[in-house]
Amino acid sequence: MDTIESLWTWEVTHLTFLTVVFFGCLLVLYLLDFYRPPGAKRQFRGLLGAAPFEFEAESLGGNPYVQLAWASLLGLYLELLMIRLVSSEIRIFAYLKNFVLIACFLGFGLGCYLCRRRVNLVAFLLPLLAVTSLACAPWPKVREMVLNLQGFIGKLSEVETWGLPSLPHSADAWAGVLITVALALPLFALVALTFVPIGQVVGGCLERGCRGIPGYTVNILASLAGILLFTLLAFLSQPPAVWFAGAGILLLALVWRIPRLVWTALAAIAVVVWLAVQAGSGTPFTYYWSPYQKLGIRSVGQNGEIYSYELKTNDSWYQQMLNLSDEFVRSHPDVFAHNPPEWNPYNLPYHFYPNPPSVLVLGAGTGNDVAAALRNGAGDVDAVEIDPLILKLGRELHFEHPYSSPRVHAVVDDARSYLQTSHKQYDFILFSLLDSQTTNPFYSNIRIDNYVYTVEAMQAVRGLLKPDGLLLVKYWVETPWIGGRLLELLNSTFDQPPVQLAALNTRYGTPGHFFICGSSARIAAAMRDPALTAYVSTHVSSPLSAARITTDDWPYFYQREPGIPTIIVLISAALLPICWYLLRSTGTAGRGIEWHFFFLGAGFLLLETQIISKMALVFGTTWVVNSVVIAALLLLVVGSNLFVQWRPRVAVAAPYVGIFVSLAIAYFTPLRFLLFSSVALKVVVASLVLCLPVFFAGIVFIRSFAKAGFRGEALGSNLFGALVGGLLESTSYWFGLRFLLILAAGLYLASWMALVRSREPVAAHPL
User: 358 in the Ramachandran plot: left (φ > 0), alpha (ψ -120 to 50) or beta?
Assistant: First the structure.
């Protein structure tokens, strides 16, 4: 009977997959008919009655600068929405970190190329509905299929992801990857097609109604407003239903002068919001959206008594809140019959350092390690947690209320940022798993703990540790080379092999691999306890293997050796024909790429990527920091516009020289030189060193864009270049983050060469 049931489940899952892929491809073909050039053969004649929803950008009426502002605001807002939603709910795109962004650039670039054609609202709403349906998936079988995709991608990966070890390139592994690609490609195309109508409106406004630098400045400032609006909603922990409601309001503000479009938009957005509300329904979990991730929490117990709370992030088990108070232990002897509470993984660290005067907990979460420190006599506890919502849940729900203790000081910050900015020294520092359960740092769309497990981070830890203090790193090691990398990091920093032991999984505890290092005298004193010696000898960790040590330049903790992972190469290779097909189907392939703008776009994307990474290291990898950095980059572009208006005839060679000189400064300046104790000084110096190339690149772009007459093709070529820059960003997996600066310099040199080869130099034309 079980065999029949398993076969039935297997058949239903695969049938669901085939159905989703089939209808996804069919929808892509249907949507492409909206953009085929006049006279071209169409796959779906009559476009199923969608003609009434066509409109010209000029028919939106009102002030053209206002319309440009609404369209630009909607575009950037929706881009962030898509990146966050798809990466959180369809987790293969959390691993393929840039591909949603690339899809947005492709769609927006196509729209700019097609800005002289009529826009169709249906062509915007249908792919939006399709992507939302798959991401939110209120249908159990579809949701199950989407969640299972992570297993397929993990089977052929040089990166330790989702707890799945790397496997040989077997037939089963390749089959899994092909399944992943088969779903990822139509989804990529649907995301791209969502942005084509927005690109048409923006490109049309810039080319016709809002020509000149003022129009482009409005575009940039409105885009900045879109980023700030979505950041605000994320900071307020609003769910996707509110995100889509915001997108609906922006869309209505854009089309409100055309009644038939207003009612259609209202109906479609209502369905999208309903889908977002239904996501996660029918499960025992209550869902929240923090600034970083989707959180699901449920109570676990028996006989009407709650024993623990289970917390998931992005549908993966993350942590649990446990009650290890003396009262609970005494009243539940059955729970601890075979697992004495004194050897519980949370109490175990304090056998090495009883009653520590000061404790630092990094990755404090909902409070288990903080409560353990209090139970074991800690005098003062600093608890660092990056996610404010996880901290809030711990305050409200943890059984022992550790965050209410006057001895505890909760800090909402990135662990690496705290290590760099704190001047306090500690007796005991504890790494509390730090997201190792999900093992992939892109679950939150931000590199949360890559920069925590590097040589430079461990050196910062040693600087905060008192001479007789101890460091304990807890990590859920499921792959030998992950443990080997941690071992080598600690060996190289503390010049001594750490004590290792494995805390096994128990009915009421969280397992982990423990590394203890620091004061040799204190460790030796602790090991004189026969009970502890016996425990360590009977809980030997599994064998570890070597892996390249991670640094701030190559911080890819979950990748064993430098190189571009196979799955990223395969997906990138598969995307190229998809992009070409979209270009050919829409009649843009034969119109030619304007290579000067193309290389400018590719270089800018690489600049943006490495700047965000390095600024996150300097100021902390938080959602707010990333949004502020992006906003600062856009403001630098506005500054470039103002400079060109002030000095319109400056020789074009000057900003190119500025690009190369500022890139050289950024390349040769060690990041540790930017870690000033003064926040104001750190902001000014880091911005000058890291962000100045963007200012000069903005001068080159706006001069060239003005000479090109602010044509949609020029902006489209720029966005296509950004798409390629997004793919090239993966080279940092192989050569490190600083290499992106060399690559960016090469792309800007190529753009200069393309400009020199043009018939008329830009400097000869006033703006």
Answer: beta
